[in-house]
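---------- Forwarded message ----------

FYI, see the DNA-binding NarL/FixJ family response regulator record below. Original note from H. follows.
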Amino acid sequence: MDEGILLVDDHPGFRRMARRLLEAGGLRVIGEAADGRQAVALAAELRPEVVVLDVLLPDIDGFAVAALLAELPDPPVVVLISSHSPLELGAEAGAPNVRGFLPKDELTAERLAELAGLRP
């Protein structure tokens, strides 16, 4: 397992901003994916410690992606993100590897490290 982060969001601008924020806070981003299928493939290849996963993706929703990631050998920790509140999403993350939820506008290296158990 690589001690790095995989960012998954369908908006390139958000991925760029999130990468800058996380790296400025001392965390290492090792990859980016724009959809659920790419996220699962990259997670299997890169073996990140943490996946920061948007709930609303164009192909597979983040809850289903989290469940697929949980099936990988040595599955990554997942932190779900969204611009919508958890109540608006109306779903619960049942995958055992999901450690929490962060609104996109509250994503910082410190908050992510706290939820995922990382040390920046």
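H. also flagged this: The radius of gyration is 13 Å.
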